[in-house]
Amino acid sequence: MQSTSARRATTRALMLLALLAFGWQARADGVDVGKPSRVRNLVPAGTLERQAAQEYEQLKRQASAKGALGPDDHPQVKRLRAIAARMIPFVDRFNPRARQWRWEVNVIGSKQINAFCMPGGKIAFYMGILDTLKLTDDEAAMVMGHEIAHALREHARERMAKSQITRLGANLLGELVGGGRYAGAFQLGGNLLSLKFSRDDETEADVVGLDLAARAGFDPRAGVSLWQKMAAANKKAPLEFLSTHPAGDHRIKEIEKHLPEVMPLYEGAASVKANAGITGVKRSGRN
Fold first, then answer.
1. Global model pTM greater than 0.85
2. I need a labelling partner for 9 at 20 to 30 A (CA). Which of 26, 148, 221, 227 fits?
3. What residues are paired with 104 via a beta bridge?
């Protein structure tokens, strides 16, 4: 029979193990970016998503007319759709409505170094970002996760709401937020593709994108190599992508700061894949 001191030591050890397990679980639970801004509710989500779908279809028609819309059997189209298929199952963690979105992934034959995800899950990559940066699957997942995060966190909706508040006047803010009686005063206009996000939005998209990619089994450390490639390419010629996605050492440091939160997700996903005998898509950025 254990002595009192032995029982106490055992109890302390069990408590320590429980705390360690709790701490690991907290770390393994991914990033916490809080709730989205309530201001976004001033712009109807459905209306914005319908506008995005219309703009996306127009872009596809224009690209198709120029022979620049990647066909379904194009290697890059298949690769990016495979990456998206692994990430989309995890989107409801950040936006439950995203389960209902009609997701699309397309490739546009253009030298632009750019990619986007419109409200409602409409994703496009330009060939320029794939060819110029020679993206690995992990790096492509970082780009895609970042762009998906903008849509999930409804940054475009928030930007439009804040813009309209400024236009209508600060004196209406209380009534807008309180009762929504002036919701009809909000007019959606402009081009969603030209919308610029704030630095905070960009940081949040980086962090959420890391989480999504890690859960899908993509190495979040590729976020660092991605932005190192961006910086190197930008020295040769200014990148359009960086006009709306500011880069720099601060961005890389922010990604590195959150790696301890997402690496357990990646390692867990990798373990599940290994046990299930899943190989995933190839780790190559070439056609």
1. no
2. 26
3. 122
